[in-house]
Amino acid sequence: MSGYAPSEAARRSGFSLDTLRYYEKIGLLADVERTAGGQRVFTDDDLGWLVLFRCLRDTGMPIAQMRRYAQLARDGEHTTDERHELLCHHAARVEEQMRLLQRQYDHLREKIRFYEGLPGTAPGSEAG
Amino acid sequence: MSGYAPSEAARRSGFSLDTLRYYEKIGLLADVERTAGGQRVFTDDDLGWLVLFRCLRDTGMPIAQMRRYAQLARDGEHTTDERHELLCHHAARVEEQMRLLQRQYDHLREKIRFYEGLPGTAPGSEAG
DNA sequence: CTCCAACCTGGAGCGCGCTCCAGGTCAAGC
DNA sequence: GCTTGACCTGGAGCGCGCTCCAGGTTGGAG
């Protein structure tokens, strides 16, 4: 069950080996277990964190904030409120991001419609 | 109607003065008109381009591709097919981006639900 | 005519998030 | 035991998209 070689962890998480090492180096991923010889062994727990990091990264959270979250989690149960709040704030930002993306996507579609000769919109100021 | 000072163009477009100069320098914005003394005068047309650039930028198009699009537009009418295609490809990428964002947002919401003690999900591997 | 805020230029610098490298170590298979 | 590919470290480098700076010019208000 538990105990993945770096390459396996990379494959499963979708992060590169360098990124995994980087995440540990900057203290995002807590110190990863090692073999006697010093090679990393990733646990299911580590993998769980990586899934979370991918989620947060894909939704645009800066690394500094992920670090903060991870640190809070390491600090123990009494930080759950703060972690909850952090995620809620982030979710609100993601919602805003989704609205903006949708709006600009609509603009883009309008522009494309213009190229397809369908009316629907006056060309507006000429920009390509 | 036409003829905006740099600060006005910045205000209207939401780009900084430095960014406007940068966009011209790299050939994204075509050569902007100047006063006798060399100060920029932005036209409605320029503003139209800036609106488009904001749309493309907000949807994640790299500057190199925006440049390509702008160059095609400058090259004339016979590039409309290619421009259309470029925008369509981009729109497809944006759709994928929106799906990913939605998916990860759902994950995030699930995580938040977990903090709120509502069941709905097993905690899964412990990651904060 | 004077002033000063807004503008100009070329070029350096930055913040982010990795990515790559050199030079060395580890460990599984033969 | 030897080979070989995966792994280790510290640190430099990169690509993107700006952002800032110094030192000089412009141009509208008073």
UniProtKB/TrEMBL annotation, chains A, B:
Family matches, as SUPFAM superfamilies: Putative DNA-binding domain
Keywords: Coiled coil, DNA-binding
GO molecular function: DNA binding; DNA-binding transcription factor activity
DNA-binding as UniProt keyword: yes
Sequence ranges assigned to domain HTH merR-type in this UniProt record: 3-72
Segments forming a coiled coil: 91-118
Gene3D superfamilies, per the entry: 1.10.1660.10
InterPro entries linked: DNA-bd_dom_put_sf, MerR-type_HTH_dom, MerR_fam
PANTHER family: HTH-TYPE TRANSCRIPTIONAL REGULATOR ADHR, REDOX-CYCLING DRUG-SENSING TRANSCRIPTIONAL ACTIVATOR SOXR
Descriptive protein name: MerR family transcriptional regulator
Organism: Micromonospora arida
